[in-house]
Amino acid sequence: MNDTSSTRRTLRLGTRRSKLAMAQSGQVAEAVRKATGHPVELVEITTYGDVSREALAQIGGTGVFVSALRDALLAGEIDFAVHSLKDLPTGQPDGLLLAAVPKREDPRDVLVARDGLTFEQLPDGARIGTGSPRRMAQLNAWAREAGRRIETVPVRGNVDTRLGFVAKGELDAVVLAAAGLTRLGRLDEVTQYLPADRILPAPGQGALAIECVATNAPLAASLAVLDDPLTRAAVTAERSLLAALEAGCSAPVGALADLLVEEQAVTEMRLRGVVGTTDGSTLVQLSTTGPVPASEQDALALGRELAAEMLDKGAAGLMGERAH
């Protein structure tokens, strides 16, 4: 049934089962209820990424969190799905539509360290947990620049698991996304917001993606009221850079599009990108600034242009095997 306006039927929202996914999906469900008047029920779906204990890079990057939800959409088992945008592969599959990208949460990474320490205060040889090659590359580069030594320790698991490593004294600190802790109401555990000029976030970090089947035009139109055009432009540019580097979601690539504001008016967009070796010995970090993209094509072009400059500076050689 494609006509969602004729009755107030219950819409089925597909979500991963993790506490964070349920929290952010619950927030979207409430927004959809308010926008459409339809009841919304959460349908929990287990993805391969949730049950595998292997490192993300070994099992195909963060796209492993998405495929089961997309299969459920195409099979008609759910009406729409909520993803963390940074988990989405850069190619949009046939038959599915990115109906809305709501206003983004804080895109930065944060440090949660023992004894309330900041990165600069951690002792030499500190063990910092992260499963992200992007974070490893930039943390190690920051330490090298300061003449210090740290150990980046690969970790998997949900937010509770990762914070538990610090609470139990197994690690000195972990790095997480600010947005996730915001949605879980756990920002009070943050000991430092990591500045973007040191640790660029993952492309799309802090943003959510609301996806439905392309043929359900009434539902797509209803969901579109949740779309934030400036957030969509920013994440489109970031993901275009990732795609143009031909890098997968698990590659050590960071990107952030900032909206520059003067006198309370958005004037320009600055896109920053970084690629590095995980030991932090080499980084390619560049930025470009231009008019706020007026269309999706403009945002895509901004990302491609910066990616081309980064490739000219040797970015391809820093990513290991490039994804195709």
From TrEMBL:
This protein's record includes keyword RNA-binding: no
Gene3D superfamilies reported in the protein's UniProt record: Periplasmic binding protein-like II (3.40.190.10), Porphobilinogen deaminase, C-terminal domain (3.30.160.40)
Cofactor binding summary note: Binds 1 dipyrromethane group covalently.
Modified residues (S-(dipyrrolylmethanemethyl)cysteine): 249
Annotated ranges, domain Porphobilinogen deaminase N-terminal: 11-217
Cofactor: dipyrromethane
Pfam families to which the protein is assigned, alphabetical: Porphobil_deam, Porphobil_deamC
Sequence ranges assigned to domain Porphobilinogen deaminase C-terminal in this UniProt record: 234-311
Known catalytic reactions: 4 porphobilinogen + H2O = hydroxymethylbilane + 4 NH4(+)
Top-level EC class: transferase
EC number from the UniProt entry: 2.5.1.61
Keywords noted in UniProt: Porphyrin biosynthesis, Transferase
Further comment found in the protein's record: The porphobilinogen subunits are added to the dipyrromethane group.
Subunit structure: Monomer.
Entry similarity comment: Belongs to the HMBS family.
Function: Tetrapolymerization of the monopyrrole PBG into the hydroxymethylbilane pre-uroporphyrinogen in several discrete steps.
NCBIfam families registered for this protein in UniProt: hemC
Protein name: Porphobilinogen deaminase
Organism: Streptomyces luteosporeus
